[in-house]
Design brief:
With about 325 residues, the chain is an all-alpha fold. It has helices at about 5-15, 25-45, 55-75, 75-100, 105-125, 130, 160-180, 185-195, 195-200, 205-230, 235-240, 240-255, 260-280, 290-305, 305-329; strands at about 150, 155. About 75% of the residues lie in helices and about 0% in strands.
Length: about 325
């Protein structure tokens, strides 16, 4: 029965939009899965001791490269996506390789990636003639007189987007599982504990770190592409910069980055938190959401380092071990 629970949950999730829920609940469900995928991409790297505060740059690259290629050159997103992935991989390599070769780790690595995130946002704002600057940009519509355009990856139906994002989210969980069950995870855990000792027994530190960084960055880039195509609007504040990067970190840690579904639980938590703040306070206090994210991040690290789902799993396992012990007594 326990083995069947994930499949039952997946079937319920896949059938949820067919129950007649409104557009707004369906939109929230899509955004939870989309951000769940992005947070999972960050957790692939973050859970192995490489805390990046620059993933907003990769999200922004995915969103803006595809939109700008479509708007300025007429390139279909199907051609824009490979370009975005190549640009993302190049940036991740340029940042990651020197850091890993020079053994820049811990908070020093976090500061380097934090600068990357802000540089990406500033470049987007500076290229206002091409990107729209701080006002953002809207992809040229291909939906005039039609409900969908496969070549432009534009669909007016949220139901279609739900199943697209659901498939990508499942692919993200599969990637997380493959990395988690690979020998690379054990090697990277050893590296995070003592890098020199790991290198002394033949572990290729730079190669392994760079591989996981590229996987994480490319997943985040795909998340940016999906966000831009679904929302049909990109803005440097929502897809790049420090705030978005911190949102990823907080979401993954709050949900439990050491558990497969933890980042998705974190996405649900952060999205509901944002909606509550918006309804309660509106946009009267600028930066309040970021401040609350930062405060809650500190509290989660102190009191719930394994996150919501991680703590729940730990309590469940303790309960399971306590029952046989009580029966034996």
């Amino acid at each position: 029965m326990t083995r069947a629970l994930p499949w039952i949950g997946l079937a319920v999730l896949a059938a949820a939009p067919l129950t007649g829920m409104g557009n707004y609940p369906l939109h929230l469900l899509i955004m939870c899965l989309l951000w769940g995928f992005v947070y999972t991409g960050w957790a692939v790297m973050g859970r192995l001791g490489m805390v990046s505060l620059g993933h907003g740059a990769f999200l922004g690259i995915g969103a803006y490269v595809v939109v700008m290629a479509w708007n300025h050159f007429g390139l279909s997103p199907w051609l824009g996506i490979p370009i975005a992935l190549v640009v993302t991989a190049t940036v991740a390599f340029i940042i990651g390789y020197p850091c890993f070769r020079l053994k820049i780790v811990g908070h020093y690595f976090a500061l380097v990636t934090l600068a990357l995130s802000e540089v990406a946002r500033m470049i987007i704002v500076a290229l206002r003639d091409q990107t729209g600057g701080s006002l953002g940009a809207t992809p040229d519509t291909a939906l005039a007189g039609t409900a969908w355009s496969l070549s432009a990856v534009q669909f007016s139906s949220k139901l279609v987007w739900f199943y697209i994002v659901l498939a990508v989210w499942l692919a993200g969980l599969w990637v997380w599982t493959r990395v988690d069950r690979s020998m690379a995870r054990l090697a990277l855990e050893a590296i995070s504990q003592e890098e020199d000792a790991a290198a002394s027994i033949g572990i290729s530190v730079t190669r392994l770190k760079l591989t996981v960084t590229l996987i994480s960055a490319l997943m985040t880039c795909i998340g940016g592409v999906l966000y831009a195509q679904y929302q049909l609007y990109v803005n440097p504040e929502t897809v790049s910069g420090i705030a978005v990067s911190l949102q990823m970190v907080f979401g993954a840690i709050a949900g439990g980055m050491f558990v497969r579904l933890g980042p998705t639980v974190g996405a649900v938590f952060t999205l509901l938190l944002a909606e509550v703040l918006r309804l309660a306070l509106g946009h009267d206090i600028h930066g309040l959401d970021t401040t609350i994210y930062g405060l809650l991040l500190v509290l989660f690290i102190i009191f719930m380092p394994k996150g919501i789902l991680g703590t729940a799993v730990e309590l469940w396992e303790k309960r399971g071990r306590a029952k046989p012990a009580a029966a034996a007594a």
